[in-house]
Fold:
Amino acid sequence: MEEKPAQLPLVEGEDFYWEGAALVFTARYHLRRGYCCESGCRHCPYREAQSDEEQSKDETHESN
Structure:
């Protein structure tokens, strides 16, 4: 049986905040989690990195 890694407790204001009834994760939370869930999260630092990679690929194709 595979063991799950221990999860650190979430800290309000650092890992998430409330916007009305919605819980919004911060970039700090995403970085601690270590990967993109591909849900389009507002503060996802991985999505920005993926966009930069896609843009540089497009620029490379345009210059050929």
About this structure: The longest strand covers residues 16-19.
